[in-house]
Structures are given as C-alpha cells and as structure tokens.
Amino acid sequence: MEALNALNLEVLNTIGLAIISYLPSVLIGLIILGLGIFGGNALSAFLKESTGSSLLGEVVKYVLYVLAVFMTLDQLQFASMIVNTAFLFIMGGLAVAFALAFGLGGREFAKTQLQKLDNKIEEETINPDITTQETEIEEKLNGPI
C-alpha cells in the first residue's frame, strides 16, 4: 500500500485498499463453507450409522450444504437481498411440499387415528366409572403415570 502511495496512483490505491478490506470477509466465508461441508459430512455419516437410513443422512448433508452456501454468500455480502429472498423461497417451497405430501398421503392415517380417539372418548362417556376404576388400579400396581 505504501508503494502505491509513493507513486500517487489514487485509483490503484483505492482498489488495493478495497481488496485488502474485503479479505477478512472472504476468509470468514471460506471458514463457514468449510465448517458447513465438514459438519454435513460428519452428521451424515453419524445418521447413516445410527439410524441405518442412508436417505436421511444424504438429505441432512445436502440441507447443511445449502445452508452453508447461503451463509457464505451472506457473509460475502453477495447480493444479500437476492440471496435472502432465494433462501426464503426455497424454505417456503419445501414447507409447502411437505405439507401437501403429508396432507394428501396421511389422510387415511389421520382418519383412522381420529376414529380411534372418537371411539375412546365415546366409550369413556358411556362407562366413566369403569375407566376411572381401571386407572386407579393401574396407578396402584404401576405407580402414578
């Protein structure tokens, strides 16, 4: 920098200063990206081994990769508005996709569970003393629930 000052080249001096002042952001961005990739791989391997589900491990790994990339771009102040908007759209799209998949795929399951709950409530209202006595007996045998 002092050499550029000695030559009185203001444009090069300004460019050099801008590059040097941006280097810490680049370094921190690389650290964030590296930790995201390392964490994604480590968590993926752990989940694959502990649950036996390679699909779960892969999904978690790539979710962490995407999160690390977005965090890195945010750290580099690279079109922050566009990056944040894109991230929100991706998260919103995933939420809608899961809601639709669960809603459409889980209709029968929800119907049977609600029917069981309805039957249990109906049975308790018809025979309230029997269920109360059964609960008291279970508490005496097993302790309070």
Structure notes:
By secondary structure, this protein is mostly helical. The protein has a domain at about 1-80. The chain has 6 helices and no strands. It has helices at about 1-5, 10-50, 55-75, 80-105, 105-125, 130-140. Helix 2 (about 10-50) packs antiparallel against helix 3 and helix 5 packs across helix 6 (about 130-140). The longest helix is centred in the first third of the chain and has 42 residues, at about 10-50. It starts with a helix and ends with a helix. The model has no long low-confidence stretch (mean pLDDT about 80). Keywords: Membrane, Transmembrane, Transmembrane helix.
N-to-C SSE string, H for helix and E for strand = HHHHHH
Structural class: mainly alpha
Number of helices: 6
Mean pLDDT: 82
Radius of gyration: 29 Å
State the end-to-end distance. 73 Å
Low-pLDDT residue spans: none
Total DSSP E strands: 0
**Secondary structure: helix percent:** over 70%
Give the DSSP E fraction (strand runs of 2 or more residues).
under 5%
Largest sheet: none
Overall shape: it is: elongated
Keywords: Membrane, Transmembrane, Transmembrane helix
Transmembrane segments: 20-43, 55-73, 85-106
Write the layout of secondary structure elements.
Layout: H1 2-7, H2 10-51, H3 54-75, H4 80-105, H5 107-126, H6 128-142
In brief:
The chain crosses the membrane at residues 20-43, 55-73, 85-106. The chain has a domain at 2-79. It is built from six helices and no strands.
